Amino acid sequence: MKSCIQKTILLLGLFPSIALAEWGLNLRKGATPISQEIYDLHMLSLWVVTIIGIVVFGIMFWSIFNHRKSKGVKPAQFSHSTTVEIIWTIIPLAIIISLAVPATKLLIKMEDTSDTEITVKATGYQWKWKYDYLDEDLTIFSALDAKSTEVSALDSGLNPMDSENYLLDVDNPIVLPTNTKIRILTTANDVIHAWWVPDLGWKRDAIPGFINDNWAYIEEPGVYRGQCAEICGKGHGYMPIVVNAVPMDEYKVWVADQKAAQDAKNNESDMVLTMQELMTKGETVYKAQCVVCHQANGEGLKGAFPAIAGSAVAVESDNRLRHIHQIIYGKGLMPAFGEQLGDVDIASIVTYTRNAWGNNTGDIIQPKEVAEARQTPNIITAGGQKRENTAESKPSEDSLKKSIGDLAEVR
Amino acid sequence: MSAITHDADHDHDHKPTGLKRWFFSTNHKDIGTLYLIFALTMFFVGGSMAMIIRAELFQPGLQFVDPQFYNSMVTVHALIMIFGAVMPAGVGLANWMIPLMIGAPDMALPRMNNMSFWILPFAFALLISTLFMEGGGPAGGWTMYPPLVLQTGAAFPFLILAVHFLGVSSIMGAINIIVTVFNMRAPGMTLMKMPLFVWTWVITSFLLVASLPVLAGGVTMLLTDKYFGTSFFNAAGGGDPVLFQHIFWFFGHPEVYILALPAFGIVSQIIPAFSRKPLFGYASMVYATASIAILSFFVWAHHMFTVGLPLKGELFFMYATMMIAVPTGVKVFNWMATMWKGAMTFETPMLFSIAFVILFTIGGFSGLMLGLTPVDFQYHDTYFVVAHFHYVLLTGAVFALMAAVYYWLPKWTGYMYDERLGKIHFWLSTITANVLFFPQHFLGLAGMPRRIPDYNIQFADFNMISSIGGFAYGLTQLLFVYIVIKCALGGKKSKALTWEGAKGLEWTVPSPAPFHTFERPPKLTKAMLEH
Asked: B409 and B417 in contact (C-beta within 8 Å)?
């Protein structure tokens, strides 16, 4: 008996989080009336198949235990019975109809995106999310948080068990109001992603060049976490979604704060920073935006992601503009960061990458130089560079707006 | 003419030797053996990739591989298991058994038979070589969705060419089976007298011929999008990335039944044999198989409920998908009724077949749940789906293939396999496969997306259990190789009729089956045509 308990404790030790939390066994009920109904339909279908399973396997096992040669039975020789065959065609048909009826009702309800009060557009990027609050002229970029990024590196030596929200936390969570019918549009900038917060009850693909719409009505305030659900390349497991649902008045305060911060960022091009400031900020931004591909040591990954350390773009003084443009406009598989990063951020990264890892150019790039670079035509594509197919698939802002309009009309 | 007859009469087992025998073979039995050995090899190559996946998922955090390499393991594992292991194993069985079951001397198109096999090693050499290329192997999932797949590096054209080769090989195999069955049946072997394994393979062959060219078209469009400036799947050029998904799954859903229908056929041979009772509802089995095959062309979009289909489309594909439960249910009930009041014994083939019926049905249950569109919005692209399709493909298709090997191995080698080891292999496989895949249902419901190399700590326990099951399942299959080799080398001799209750023409020829069989059409008695 004692050794039995010891063994159990040993086994428990093998599964480290057993004591931490309940084991997630079932679908979540979620935070919206729809997610609750989905949960109910899930449970209905689960019970239906469980009961069918018990009956069918029960009969089969009864037969297996009783109709065996070792018990001396003589095999019967019947080989068909039209009556029985009709019965076991009709019963399953009846069962699936009884499941299809509630499913149809729920689906019709889910697809009704009329009368929404606010609209948020989620755009998938490799590998982060951009959120446009279309009624507020507010844009938020939301990427994996620094802690998870650090812990998740190959052989980081850090234990994920220490952080509860490992890989489910972001740098800028989005805020949504409770008790409001929110329309959530999904699209993508590069490849197909899927926006999924289990507690809202659904996931929807984010497809470059197309806009999908869906809606949520969150009743309970709280933090709801989700992930990208469609394989989208190397960082697919590293682009979580965090929704912070708060009452409407708090939401309005948050929107005002965010807009103030956004305006401040737009006016930062006149700032003049020291080398030290640029290097410190540059390292932080680099770690958040660039390490996934170019690695912490700037060496990249051979064959997939080019090295920055010692590369011509980052060390030759003629290439300062090219360097800045490559970050603003992207190149090949490298996404464009111009929209997402402010002038200070880009200036810091460029300064940092031109001076780190032995790239000791001594160059200092000020935000003003970045602001000017934004005004000059893109020299990456102008220089006869082959344009990648995927880079072209980015729909223009205008065409997106038009599509949203069309979508509204169709509905 | 007389000279040929003379030769055949005197030197019945005349066969070429060495390289000539295997590389230039036109003999259905040798080609069947080649297919089966190739499939087993690929099962281990694809399996070792699964071991890498399970090792990385053993704990949260990245311990072994880079996420890009992880994605390419996920991608190539699927392509190898589907096109390299399960399909060739099925074709191998068809090659070996269909001529024996319908009383034909060989396949109708023996040289094409040789070619359809020998394309495969080259196709897989191409595919596997991509893992060593600049930029790594294909890493966008076996479904090859654009635009992601267009980001593949040097591996991209090799991937497309490999898929083309696999398609060509399968189409040739399918045509051969159709021609053989429709032209070479022994007199008296009418269509509705054919063993069910033959029926399922004929229907599967039509699925292959109808669906693979669609895939070939789709991947060629990917190729021209990448290299020749077309915009089939590029929204900026007027195309649509979702179009590829429609094309892919128009192939992909019938493909699921290409893997499953031969398994149904196998089990429909084995369960009556070990129940010592005729197959219940032979005609309804044939009709159910045909209905499943036809329905499979009308359900493809249930793989893409989340792409934003119109409501009417979602409803249509939900209803069509649920309809498949009816003919599938008929099959399961027929197998049950075959066992009912039989005199069952439980040798290894029967054990694997019973496990197939139960575990495939569990996969069918989760399939029915996935078919309900509103809840699919939650299940889609999670481990719930991974659990679902591994139940139908591993404990489904692969278990049936294992059953088939144990059932016919004495016919192929002339020796009995080691029954004790066979049973150990069965029990270990069944237990470990369930430890491997059952917890994945929970992971998916709790919210773990598929195709991720790392995960939140709330998923740690079930992933660890699943990985332990995975390693144990992988090791167990080494026992299978040992059993097969041991049986091929010798042991207790098998009679022509290996299993007391087995029915069919293949049991009328000696064990091992001679190199040439049924050079003259057999005279069929009523007893020989029983099922």
From this structure: yes
φ, ψ dihedrals at A378, nearest 5°: -60, 115
The answer to whether the Cβ–Cβ distance between B452 and A230 falls below 8 Å is no
Tens of pLDDT, residues B290-323: 999 999 999 999 999 999 999 999 999 999 999 9
Mean pLDDT, residues A162-177 taken together: 92
Q: Is residue B121 part of a domain?
A: yes
Yes or no: domain A269-376 corresponds to CATH 3.30.470.20: no
- In chain B, the residue whose alpha carbon lies closest to the alpha carbon of A185 is B308
| Confidence (pLDDT) at A32 | 94
pLDDT value at residue B325: 94
Active site residues of B: 77, 106, 142, 169-170, 253, 255, 257, 268, 302-303, 328, 331, 450
Residue B147 lies in a domain: yes
Integer Cα distance of B22 and B3 in angstroms: 26
Whether the CB of B313 is below 8 Å from some CB of chain A: the reply is no
pLDDT digits (tens, 9 = 90+) for B48-67: 999 999 999 999 999 999 99
**For the structural domain made of A118-266, what CATH number should be given?**
2.60.40.420
CB B213 within 8 A of CB B167: yes
Interface mutation vs chain A, best among B76, B350, B377, most A CBs within 10 Å: B377
Q: Does the beta carbon of B206 lie under 8 angstroms from any beta carbon of chain A?
A: no
- pLDDT confidence bin for B4, thresholds 50/70/90: very low
Where exactly does CATH 1.10.760.10 map onto chain A? 269-376
Looking at the complex, does the CB of residue B512 fall below 8 Å from at least one CB of chain A?
A: no
The pTM for the full model equals 0.88
CA A330 to chain centre: 21
Can you tell me whether residue A311 is helix, strand or coil? coil
Whether B67 is covered by a domain: the verdict is: yes
Which residues constitute the domain of residue B368?
20-529
pLDDT given at position A292 = 77
Nearest CB partner across the interface for A45, out of B147, B319, B369: B369
How many domains does chain B contain in total? 1
CB contact under 8 A, A164 and B277: no
* pLDDT tens column, B322-368: 999 999 999 999 999 999 999 999 999 999 999 999 999 999 999 99
Q: Which of B277, B378, B440 to mutate to test the interface with A (most CBs of A within 10 A)?
A: B378
> Using alpha carbons only, how large is chain B's radius of gyration in Å?
23
CATH number for B83: 1.20.210.10
Find the farthest-apart pair of alpha carbons in chain B and give their distance in angstroms, rounded: 77
CB contact under 8 A, B61 and A301: no
B386 part of a folded domain: yes
**Cα dihedral value A209, A214, A219, A222, nearest 10:** -30
Residues of B in contact with A164 (CB under 8 A): 457
pLDDT > 90: what percent of chain B? 91
